[in-house]
Structures
1.
Amino acid sequence: MINFSTGPSRVHDQLGRYFADALKNDICSINHRSTEFKSIYKSIKKHLATKLKLPEGYVPILMSSATECWYVLSRDFDQMPFYHFFNGAFGQRWFEYRYAQNPSNTFKINFEVDVYPRLPAYLPPNGFIALTANETSNGTALPREVMHNIRQTYPDSIIAVDATSCMAGEVLNWENADVWFASVQKCFALPAGMAVLVVSEKVAQAVKNKPQTQYNSLSYLYNMALENQTTHTPNVLNAYFLSRVLESSPEIELIDAQITARAQSWYSFLEKIGLQAFVKDAELRSRTVVAVQDSPKRIKKIKQVALESGFLLGEGYGQLKADTFRIANFPQHTEEETYMLQDFLKELLTNKHLLSK
Ligand SMILES: *Cc1c(COP(=O)(O)O)cnc(C)c1O
């Protein structure tokens, strides 16, 4: 079966080999305070810099999930007003968690799926702006210029970006935000249970004097990360996988070009066979998550026949569960697999009786 779900998704082709290497080298049982672990961490940093072009001054912290990143940021910036700017279920969830914690200082600014997102320019200048670069739930993405404009408009705010379903799949303009994070079961092609949180010096300064009373207090995490260390026993195996996957990865510009070309091919393919992309405005479509909309009956049928034919499609998410499905267009999905799925869908859509049965 080929996993086109948008996360957890298909894992990296070489994972079996990396696992064998891990067992051979006792990676699963090394001490996380050891020099071996530190060198794994160091290599992750090095490859994030060389492959994903993470600029100097941004420190990657190993976390357990994107959800944990939401939590840590919401808690450690408790004094700041939070402005959540989003159009879908993941942005909403982050907003809700923070709102439950600090209702009087948490604000949402929604925009519609097919409307160009404009963050108002009248927000206070020193707030915390929470963005979702790629809204996995509905297949939209924030255009690059939008993030650039937000940075220009709010140079003194802290801008944090949930980039879970695009980090490692697309070029990120790191300087446009102070915090970025992603869990690894999407474009990093790894098993779930780990996330990468990247923070700038500005953020480190902002939390410098906060108490380090929790295992995941941001300043504690940051200081440990500077030493290639974690605050608790981490998922060492997944950290090892991350270092190996990044090491073997092409540079992000190349991956981005492939993802972009394949996303274009997906959207024009859908149109050709008479399937509707959920997002109508091409400029606002995600390149890594392709959402398809149809009647609940047909959506159900397509997913079911796909599964019988060896393709796991991503379920619709939240409110969109019944009338959409999603196709992951992640770096680990090969051209060949993509063509196989397209051939299958084409056949299904041209043999109308298959869908009406
Ligand atoms: C998948 C996803 C999450 C949740 O990731 P966890 O690893 O379950 O915490 C959060 N945000 C976005 C945009 C996602 O795609």
2.
Amino acid sequence: MLNDNRPIYLDCHATTSVDKRVLEAMLPYFSERFGNPSSTTHLYGWEAESAVKQARITIAEAINATPEEIIFTSGATEANNLAIKGVAEAYFSQGKHIITVATEHRAVLDPCKYLQTLGFTITYLPVQPDGLIDLEQLRAAIRPETILVSVMAANNEIGVIQPLAQIGQICRERGVLFHSDAAQAIAKIPLDVEQMNIDLMSLTAHKVYGPKGTGALYVRRRNPRVTIASQIQGGGQERNIRSGTLYTPQIVGFGKAIELGLDLMASEQEYLLQLREKLWSLLNQLPGIELNGHPTQKLAGNLNVSIERVDGTALMLGLQPTVALSSGSACSAASTKPSHVLTALGREEKLAHASIRFGIGRFNTIAEIETVGKTVVSVITSLRQARNLPQNSLKI
Ligand SMILES: *Cc1c(COP(=O)(O)O)cnc(C)c1O
């Protein structure tokens, strides 16, 4: 798909390309159909409004919600901030305790950290060595003053899928709101806010072949009716919860990406599993390589491995010409600190350093996976050989 000199893209947890079918759906809304969906007095406004409405219906149906429960945002980061700060501000009189998990995305952890400066108490649940939370620990952590539990659907580094329905059931029984960051999960695994008792859910378009800079927060309207304090005030769009002119082309693309994702979900997940198994079978020939996270309860496109006796930086440099991927999480790829997610799994710091996250996606081919598998094996083998040579023999 890409020209020959570019590395093979295996970083689909960081972002994905916009599917051509999505791009095509978006294009008219940049030009002829450029109206403001809030304009109620002319055709330009009506056609934009109608396109936004259709996308809203598609996205709502994808998670078994109603269209009124979807608040468009600039992405999952904003949706997480809106959910967590919005609930904190609306419910603080009932308590100032929030429960989340050590392996969450920074867009959840950092708003929680910020709330601590305002007097909230946050419990960061640990995870088991496979990356899953312990439901008994969650149960035990809930206090009378707990107002919110925030647990992601699928992890962006290790792909682990948390038991959402069980978490939702516990939260519902205890009368605590349940928020889930589903940025990596939407249109990859089935999500149902009713069956899973989810009260707030963060979504984004650009991890499922939609455009960057658009997402949504689902906010439950009945049983119970959730109120959240707006974090951006202005023109009163999105039922006064999130002001700002709606970005029509992006929203249209988001809707199309979700529609396509749902249509393709079953066959695509099967295809990705096949590619992942191929990759793992090639890598697993190496000694001293280990899988991170639960082996099966995870996203089909995710493979995260830790490699012994190899320097993480040297490994990334060696792979760069052939394959685009991440060590640790994309957000902290530039830092030398081991990923907080791998550390939370109880990985030794050293092992956490030499780790690779493969994010396989819709447009990868089996031939690409074979090339990558062989390259990774050969780069690691030669780095290990160089390391084992006596110092002076390197100078020959
Ligand atoms: C990518 C990602 C985010 C951030 O989403 P943006 O739309 O880029 O703001 C949040 N949480 C998870 C789990 C993610 O993977």
